[in-house]
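During the second half of the funding period, the structural biology subgroup turned its attention to how the target accommodates small molecules. The most pressing case was 6-O-phosphono-beta-D-fructofuranose, which had performed well in the primary screen but for which no bound structure existed. We therefore specified the complex as follows and requested a full 3D prediction, including the ligand pose.
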Amino acid sequence: MKRRIGVLTSGGDCPGLNAVLRGIALAAEKLNFEVLGFLDGFEGLLPPGTFRVLDRRSTSGIMPRGGTIIGTTNRGHFVAKVGAGDRTVVAAQVIEDARKVLSNHGVEALIIVGGDGSMTTALQLQEAGINCIGVPKTIDNDLEATAMTFGFDSAVAAVTDALDRLHTTATSHKRVMILEVMGRHAGWIALHGGIAGGAHMILIPEIPFSYDAVVEAIRMREERGSVYSLVVVAEGAWPAEGQPVMRHGDAGEDRFGGIGGVVAAEIAARTGKETRCTVLGHLQRGGPPTTLDRILGTRFGVQAAKMAAAGHFGSMVSYQNYQVQHVPIADAVNRLRLVSPESQMVQTARDVEISFGD
Ligand code: F6P
């Protein structure tokens, strides 16, 4: 029998996942490994094990496709995290069952493509004796252990496109247009998308805003003859005198969303200007990956296959200084990379007259 490695995609999907799977399949073939793609995240590891073989043929043509051809979930038996910083323990029996499934199928190493929560699970599997390799994934780009994750560029492109569209309708109607984007703890998508799409205001979790400053910025624009404004609001943004808008999901996880509508209502009430809110939602997570995400995904996939063959278990692929390398998974979990209010990016935005509502 050929030597085997397994792979699964876990957590929220993201453009570029299929490029990773294709990269793993093609690189593994060269290294003489067969690849089993376990279905629907870690759930595919439950007995008897559900998977499909990922090879040259089954991964042909998948790179431009969004999502993941082997399915994913951020629910189920293996959830090791329900909110930022929270860690729960995956039941020992569930891990033991997964270990047996992998060993029965002759799988020597398991590649886990996921975000912070999935890496927390990976660490627990590794501690229980399953050879794990992590591939970082999140559109939020908020993992400290890697300078970049695939999916982020595609999300930013979606935000930029939405702002371009909102721009023309905003100018025609002389309105304030709010665009709520993803980013629960980190404002990277809002910051990059806002700059690229020519937003006039960007509200992010790292810089609590004040409604007085928000309204003042819109008034200033009016004084200078600009009678419309584009405002990007990250879902985790919050007023210094208030709270983030969030609710607890069915599985106990924190879910954000709704701050855009609150900001729109407040601006309308205080300025008397016509204001509309668009929530971009999962449009920024679906669809084809950008060129950058296809390349990054391919590089991450190839690196993960090589790490599996070389026995670098307990490690996660990491992108640093334009090179793909690896770091211990243990060093990667629970370390979010947030936007620094003093950073050059924020300063650049301020220099082109973008307000942060502070
Ligand atoms: O972490 C990725 C992310 O897209 C967040 O930006 C967003 O808050 C969340 O997932 C949405 O999750 P779900 O698809 O479960 O609604």
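Two results from this model are relevant to the next phase. The chain has ten helices and 13 strands. Residues 152-173 form the longest helix (22 residues).
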